[in-house]
Design a protein that fits this description.
Length: 422
């Protein structure tokens, strides 16, 4: 804590010095009659406060930085903005100071140089206008600002308004009511968990009436007032009218807990499909978005495997799953989704966590010693055994215990055990 306070005091002193120098230079330049040159026509292309349509969601995405574009932009934000982001809770309305510094930084980025990088914008659907501007490769002036603004509004469509976005006017009152509903759901969930040994409710309706007024379960944009049939199959709350999709409902709980391992606190637990607004596991609110699908997709590889099995069953019948061809398709899907994708993600998380804990307790460089590596292997074996047991139980639930008595199933089990061994 003392180191943090020292850094903060140093930052404050440096920040004061920078502001003093800036003010002095500005005064001298004004007295001398110097006026900075601005590219003609660029000022009307810059963002204003109204163009930041959801500053809270934008701030959360710059805090999160799992998306490559968000990480790149966050690194270029001013120190003022970065410190304000550290203090933002992700659920309340951002302070006016944070909104102003974000606005200033975004407009500075618009004029600095092209923001386009193919890797940063992978899986982000770029508009035709943006693609045309990229092909023109502008280096400065109005064309550059127009390109950068188009890139940012494609990357953050719910947070930033495009230059020509006149046809879409969001119901700002409605979304603020919806945000407040989700904030209250967040507080009610925390109270429920505090009274129930950290267990989540089976359905959101379990929070009412003790922890939450049932009126807060209905989004103002929901014209059906929370009636069944609005949300995805199996997602309708059985007890009360509810507009919100609860991701920790009984049928999804196991898969969601696995998703938490990979995605952590940003995993959505409650969604408003009307406003594309999510309440995350850590209590933050943010909008859906195209950044590598991480703010939109809430499917684990285990969920995708379950969907694959259901599709096979629907197309070919239950008996097909017991044939050699059916078992081979199950094996191939399991290898692709679980062994090749999910397990490496889990291993990466485990390794980082074990290394972090060892270094925190025994000091940095401990893994360079034989003793450190021996401890690491022992811990990894125990954690790996636990993960293998959990994954195998979920696979048996998805594929059936009979599958693991076949040659194909045993092959999958052997591969799983080998991957989770140090």
């Amino acid at each position: 804590m003392s180191n943090i306070m020292l850094k903060f005091k140093t930052y404050c002193r440096m920040n004061l010095l920078v502001k003093t120098i800036t003010l002095l230079l500005t005064t001298l330049l004004t007295v001398s009659g110097f006026q900075p040159h601005l590219h003609a026509g660029t000022h009307q292309l810059l963002f204003d406060m109204d163009a930041i349509t959801d500053p809270g969601s934008l701030a959360v995405k710059f805090q999160d930085t799992r998306a490559a574009i968000s990480e790149s932009i966050a690194e270029q934000l001013s120190e003022d903005t970065q410190w304000l982001l550290i203090g933002y809770d992700g659920a309340s309305s951002p302070s006016l100071e944070l909104q102003k510094t974000l606005l200033s930084d975004l407009n500075r980025l618009l004029e600095m140089g092209s923001l386009y990088d193919a890797e940063l914008f992978t899986d982000i659907q770029l508009s035709e206008q943006t693609q045309t501007l990229i092909a023109q490769n502008p280096q400065d002036g109005e064309a550059l600002v127009r390109l950068n603004r188009s890139l940012l509004t494609d990357a953050y469509p719910y947070e930033l308004a495009s230059i020509s976005e006149q046809e879409f006017v969001e119901d700002s009152v409605g979304i603020e009511i919806c945000r407040e509903n989700l904030r209250q759901i967040k507080l009610a969930r925390e109270s429920y968990r505090a009274s129930n040994a950290d267990a989540d409710p089976q359905w959101i309706s379990d929070l009412s009436p003790q922890y939450l007024d049932e009126k807060l379960l209905v989004c103002p944009a929901d014209t059906t007032a929370g009636k069944p049939g609005v949300l995805t199959e199996g997602g309708v709350d059985p007890a009360l009218p509810c507009s919100y999709l609860y991701e920790v409902r009984p049928s999804e709980k196991a898969d969601q807990e696995m998703l938490w391992t990979n995605e952590g606190g940003m995993t959505p637990i409650v969604r408003c499909e009307h406003h594309h607004l999510n309440l995350s596991l850590s209590g933050k609110l943010y909008r859906n978005g195209p950044q590598r699908g991480i703010y939109t997709i809430n499917k684990t590889e285990m969920s995708l495997l379950s969907d694959f099995v259901q599709d096979l069953r629907a197309q070919h019948g239950e008996a097909f799953l017991k044939t050699h061809e059916g078992r081979m398709q199950l094996k191939q899907a399991t290898e692709e989704l679980i062994l090749n994708k999910l397990v490496p993600k889990i291993l990466s998380v485990i390794e980082k966590d074990v290394v972090s804990q060892l270094e925190a307790q025994l000091g940095k460089g401990i893994l360079d010693t034989p003793m450190g590596m021996d401890i690491f292997k022992q811990v990894f074996v125990k954690v790996g055994d636990t993960i293998e047991e959990q994954l195998l139980a979920q696979l048996q639930a998805k594929l059936g215990e009979e599958f693991f008595q076949t040659q194909e199933g045993q092959n999958v089990h052997r591969q799983l055990s080998a991957l989770l061994s140090p």
